[in-house]
Amino acid sequence: MKKIIILLILITQFSFSQNYTEYHTGSTTDLVVTPNSGVCLMGGASESDEAMVWFLNKANGGDVLVLRASGSDGYNNYFYTGLGVTVNSVRTFVINNEAGATDEYVLDKIEKAEAIWFAGGDQYNYVNFFKDNAVAVALNNFINTKQGVIGGTSAGMAILGSAYFSAENGTVTNTQALANPYHTRMTLGYNDFLNVPFLNNVITDTHYDDPDRRARHTVFLARFAKDNNARSFGIACNEYTAVCIESDGKAYVYGDYPNYEEHAFFYRPIVL
């Protein structure tokens, strides 16, 4: 009898459940290191490599976790080998529902990560799947107790302020927001999801190259001030721009200006 042995070595592993899909690149052994805190806000198109190097360096060689509600493993090789920063592993969870988000295995990987990145997509999926449950608790523990680095692009940036546009009823245009600050699509959340240092009373917005984003952002800020009787603040990025905030609160903007019109915007409305 002949025995045929097939040896297959994979750098990237893939697993699937009905509630989430997992992609894993790198070591399968958790590396326990102390991360450095910070937050990276990215505007929504191709990532700024410089900002991503900043983000990965904060992981201190540890394990990077990508959370997303659509797409696949696009960040795995980019983070693991594409930027010249050594990390122990990159794991992506594509979350399909709240049950996937609150799976004990997913929660365990959130707890063990040194860096967490939110991909783009539909931010209401993040709000719907992650808010008011064990995931929000795990994420806030990661941010404020473990003090790992966190970041996101597009929808992933939109949820990082203590106030946020949830997009529960779809996106909202400048015209709709200006005509009626309480339009059915003006769905805002206040201080009930993520607690990220230096982003208290901050509403972010992304894809600021699109002129149909800017006026609505000012309405977000006005709504916050009206609804909460408090000052509101805003941070926004053009699509290829990132704002990285250090543990001391200093913010650094990454982009390729003047080669491209890449800008970040910081708002502090004046109360009259």
Could you please describe the fold and organization of this structure?
This protein is α/β, with parallel strands linked by helices. The protein has helices at 49-58, 76-80, 98-101, 104-112, 123-130, 134-146, 155-158, 174-179, 214-228; strands spanning 12-16, 20-26, 38-42, 63-68, 89-95, 115-118, 149-153, 163-165, 188-190, 202-205, 233-237, 242-245, 251-254, 264-267. The protein is built from nine helices and 14 strands. The chain has a single domain (12-267), classed as 3-Layer(aba) Sandwich (Rossmann fold). Strands 1-2-5-4-6-7-3-12-13 form a nine-stranded mixed sheet, with helices on both faces. Strands 10-11-14 form a three-stranded mixed sheet, covered by helices on one side. Strands 8-9 form a two-stranded antiparallel sheet.
Q: Largest beta sheet, briefly?
A: 9 strands, mixed
Whole-number mean pLDDT? 93
CATH class: Alpha Beta
What is the gyration radius calculated from CA atoms? 19 Å
Q: What is the correct CATH architecture?
A: 3-Layer(aba) Sandwich
Parts with pLDDT < 50 across at least 5 consecutive residues? 1-11
Number of helices: 9
CATH fold-level label: Rossmann fold
What is the 3D form?
globular
Biggest sheet strand line-up: 1-2-5-4-6-7-3-12-13
**Which H/E pattern describes the elements?**
EEEHEHEHHEHHEHEHEEHEEEE
What is the beta-strand fraction? Answer: 15-25%
Instruction: State the total count of DSSP E strands.
Output: 14
CATH-assigned homologous superfamily = Class I glutamine amidotransferase (GATase) domain
How far from one another are the termini? 89 Å
Total domain count:
1
Structural class: alpha/beta
Q: Bin the helical content.
A: 25-40%
